[in-house]
Please model this.
Amino acid sequence: MRNSTERINRRRAGTAPPAGGMTGHASTTRPLTASTGKVHLDCAECGIGFERYACHVKGRNLTYPATCSRACAAAIRHMYNTEVTCLICSTPMMLTPSQLGKKVTCCRICSAANKRGSNPSLRGSAAYLAAADELRARQHHCSGCGLVDAPLFVRGLVATLDEYGIPVVDSKSARLICRACHLAGTTSACCRG
Model:
């Protein structure tokens, strides 16, 4: 085996890198002797010695240090968690290294509030929702076909931002339509908006 490994390494030494670059080829250009055999390591949690294959340890950027068992790995992961506060409600939460910079809220409710705050939707504004609720309380049938017992959708409710960035809703041409009229586009001209 040693002779074939040396022969392959010698053969690789004279080859030029691929035209597309070295991405994806880095593992094949390492000498084979670097990945053969086992390496002796000490557990970062309990200190017991254990062995791992060299290819599993060398050249890897591990988030957590090597441990001898799953129990030691679970115990050591808690030391690497970082406490941060939720952007919306300021609740403290523990994040793993992979979650840092990605997760900024503690729950789905805070996440939805964060999305509305960073990407304001006019249809999600309080003024738009209040106008839509007022229209639903006033009208109980489809403006296109007159259907009563069906879920109705708001159409023609226009929301814009004023010069101060506050949502303003124009509900003059707003109507409620059913799903069938919405998909077919068969509402009267006064309902289109």
